[in-house]
Structures are given as C-alpha cells and as structure tokens.
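ok trying again, last paste got cut off:
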Amino acid sequence: MKNSHLVLALLSAAPFLAFVSGESGAQQVLRGQAESANAAHVCELIANELPKNTVHSLGSDTFASGTAHKSTHSCNQSLNDISTVLRLIGQHRVPFAIQNGGHQFNPGFSSTTGVHISMKRFNSFRIIESAGMVEIGGGLTWTDVYTSLKGTGLGVNGGRIHGVGVSGLTLGGGYGWTTQARGLTIDSLRGAEVVLPSEEIVQTRNNFGIVTKLNLSTYEQGPVSGGFRIFDVGGEDNSTTLSDIADAISCFASTNKDTRAQPMLPFEVTGSGAPSSSALWFYDGPVTPTEAWSCFEGLTVMDSATRDDVEFSELIASTGKSYLSLESQFGPNGRFDQRPLPRLGHTRAAAAVSSGHSLDSMGFLFEPMLPTYVAHDKAGAFPHSEPVQPSGLIVSWSSASDDTYFHDRFREITTHLTEVGEQLGITSKDLPAYANYAHYETPVEKIYQENLPRLQLLKQKYDPAGVMNLAGGFKL
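nice, full thing came through this time. structure:
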C-alpha cells in the first residue's frame, strides 16, 4: 500500500471542551479563541512543510471522516509527517489531541480546541508467526484486529466492545473478555513504535510520544459463545427489580470459579425514573455451560440473543452493536468513572433522578472478575498486582448548561459510594483508579500510585520539554 498523508484538523472551541475549574465562562471562551488562533497558525506551518491535502478544517468532508468514530482508510501514514507535526506543536506550544477509536468521554482527551491528529490511516496489520505476535497499526480498532484474525485460529487479548481503539485501551491497561485467563491487554504488549517529541522514532514499551504501531502476543483461539440479555425491570408484574439484579451480580461474583466466563452488567435509571438492566456475557468455549449463568436464571428476560460455536470476531460484532445503543446515550457530556471493588459482596446501589435538569440516565456498570489475572502482571504503568473488580458510574445529560450541576452531583455520588463501600469493607479509597474509566479530575497519583516516580523519570528522559502535556489526558 502506498504512503498517504497525516489527517489533521483544526477544531473550533466547544463549551464542554473548555470546562476548567476556576475559570469563568468568559475566560474559557477567550482562552479557547486564543488557542484556536495559535493552532490555525501552526496548521498553516504544517501545511507548508507537508504534502498537499494534509491539513483539513472543521466542516470539510475529510475532517468529518478523519475524526468520526470507526471511519476507515485504505493506506498507511508517514512517520515523517508525525515527526514534523510534533516538532511544530512543541515549538509553538499549542494544544493538540490524538484520536484512535474516539471512545474516551473525558473532555479534551481525544478532542481539542487546537490541532486534532487522527490516527485512522495507521491501519497496517501483520501476523508474525515466528515471534507469536501481531503488529497492529496505531489507528486500528479491536473490531479491525479481530476481523483480520478471523480464520487464523489465533487470538489477541484485547477489547470487548465494537469500535474501541487498540492504542487507547492498551496504553490505559485494558480489561477484556479474556482478562481472567491472560491478564490485562498491557500485559500482552511486546513493544511499540513511538514517535517522540524529539522527532526520533523508537521501539519501546513506554508511551511518551505518539504510538504508531503495537506488537501484541497471540495465542490459540477456538470458537466462543455468548450474547446479551435485556431484563424486564419494573414491568407490570414487577417480577424483576434492580435489587434482584444486584443480588444476581453479587451471586455471580461470589460463586463463579470459571476463568472462561465473563459478563458485563450495566443497570440504570433514566431521567424519567424508568429502570433498565442488561447483561453482555462471553464464554471462551463453543458452548456456554448452564451453570455459568445460573445466578441470572431467575430474572425475567425481555429480549435476548445468544450464539454458540462462533468466531471471536463474530461475537464481538453482534454483542458490541447491541451495547452501542446504550453507549450512544452517554453523549459528549457523559462521565465514566472507575471505582474498582476487590469483591462485589452484597453491594446495593440506588440511582437518584434529578428533577428540573436534563438527566438522560444514571447507571452503574459492574464487571465481576476472578483475581487470577494478577498472575500475568508485567509491571505496566497501571498497577494491577492486587486484584480489583472494575465498576463504574455512568451519568449522561443533554444540556451543556447543566455541566456544572452534574459535575458536582457526580463527585458527590462517587464520594458517597466509596464511603459506603469502605464501611461495608468491599472497597477502599486507596485502590488505584483505572485510567481508561477515570474521571478527568482524577490525580495521576491515584492512577499510577507507586509507579508514578518511575514514569516521571521516563518522561524526563523522553519528553523533557513536556510536549505531550499539551495533549489531552492525565499529566505526569
């Protein structure tokens, strides 16, 4: 495939991207305008140094395709393009963002008021059988990877949901369907091709630049089974309640011993007060044993779809699309926060519906896991030598004028849940926050904990000028 050009975009300031504690609305707008003006100048410089049709402005067709979710391109990127862009961004100190899958909900993490770098064209894929690994372009999604592996009998320990980007999930840690048996995705990382702010291109396991390729271990992967269920919660017969759902989750978490069985269990209350709950589940085998999901058998099912003896990629595509109908409700103002639990026990969580505000839904996501995955810890940036169970609070709303209100409610609820969890002995405020789920105000000390000093030393070595701090994400 021939080389193509870097897709860059200049974003105009958007209210929900400009939210900074301590600034007035007018200050935010002025700051956003200044950043955009400077970024426009840098984009002109980039356009002068790189081939034609590299820089695209908001409103163009290429901007839309290059920054949209799950867009596809048919050619590879030039590493020299990335080097040039990083050099100019560093020289002029403009904000920028790097987008792969675009599933990060935190404002400014994969979007910006400055220079937006889309990685969509870094879409190379290669199986290296002799090394037992795959080489994956930094712009691919897990759907792309699983589709490319279809029919090979090989698997990669990656993401669960249709359309999630490879780079973001991996570098943040990466919980997946095979985590219990194989660890986090970062534990399968063998190396990465990284363009440093110095314009040097290196092979490393550190991320202090822009990742353009990742090498991940492969394993033998046979047919799998799984699907989804939507429970009838709060129907006319009231046969299933949110308390019943919580009991089922607690039952599974305390009784499951099979590392091949893994569910994702969201339940929520909408702005109108209507409860809902569903389950995605995966079994690493051609047929799911009946006993694997016995804790959920007493719940009333409104809709379901199960598949046996299918390729991994087919299951991801089918269950992922069903989950995306929920995901679309998160919206640009949504928040997704991590409160990992070492064991679920008999947790009860109640959703408070706020009248007079634009609440779409508030819910909780539970991912009960066996502690077996910690045996695969390869000492990545995210500390996971101690077992925790991922869980999250999801809040979505429709009006930007409610941002401050829901930010405040979000903090109050997560603080309250942590306090209750500590009283019950099922969580602790000292547990690490998972970077891929953590709220944007989470201190880096909370995420990286004992690994932070090592990471700061590496940052000083590879990015002494702090160019990557101009991008979205958690700052070291």
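cool. The first helix runs from residue 25 to 49. The radius of gyration is 22 Å.
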